[in-house]
Amino acid sequence: MPRPGEPDRSCERPLVIVGSDWRQPGGTLEPRRHGDIEPARQPAEAPSEADVLRTRLRERTADLQRLRSEYDNYRKRVRRDRRAVGEVAVANVLTGLLPVLDALDEARAHGVVTGGFRHVADLLETELTALGLEAFGTPGDPFDPALHEAVSCVRAGHVDRPTCTTILRPGYRVGDQMLRPALAEVTEPPAD
């Protein structure tokens, strides 16, 4: 029943959308009315056997390229992981040998490394250096809290920045990995 003031549309037929292709390119944007005749669709040409084979070949080639890329990435990741595990293992072994190097340094300071023992100590240090062990920390180095551990700090006028004046125990690293910081006495410039 129409509301007052509205026209009576009881005899008009409602709009019905036929199919989902009423907005095809080149077509009208108006929905089709019930009973409109749809244009006859042209049957799609069946692809030839050569086209089917080309399509399959492209798909298989893409699959093989994807698999090859995945395998290459896997090999690189395994190689990188093996190298990292090896570096960690070497660092752990070298960290365990640092007290031995400290004992050798003490024995040298007391003059008891002589003869065959000196040869063994030199050979040990050569082999550890070949594994990548590097000692750092010399008197006169600028103090770097990432590399040095300050045991004491004094002020003096002969330095213009914090400087390691005495190295009590050398620091060691393997490549970029620090195994132990150097223990140092630090001298700073006087306060202004």
How does the SSE layout of this entry go?
Elements: H1 49-110, H2 115-130, E1 133-136, E2 148-155, E3 163-169, E4 171-174, E5 177-180, E6 182-188
Question: Using DSSP, what is the number of strands?
Answer: 6
How are helices and strands ordered from N to C? HHEEEEEE
Radius of gyration: 41 Å
Please state how the strands of the largest beta sheet are arranged side by side.
1-4-5
| Parts with pLDDT < 50 across at least 5 consecutive residues | none
| Structural class based on helices, strands and sheet pairing | alpha+beta
N- and C-termini, Cα separation: 98 Å
Helix segment count? Answer: 2
Shape: elongated
Largest sheet, in brief, is: 3 strands, antiparallel
Strand fraction: 15-25%
* Average pLDDT reading: 85
What helical percentage do the residues reach?
40-55%
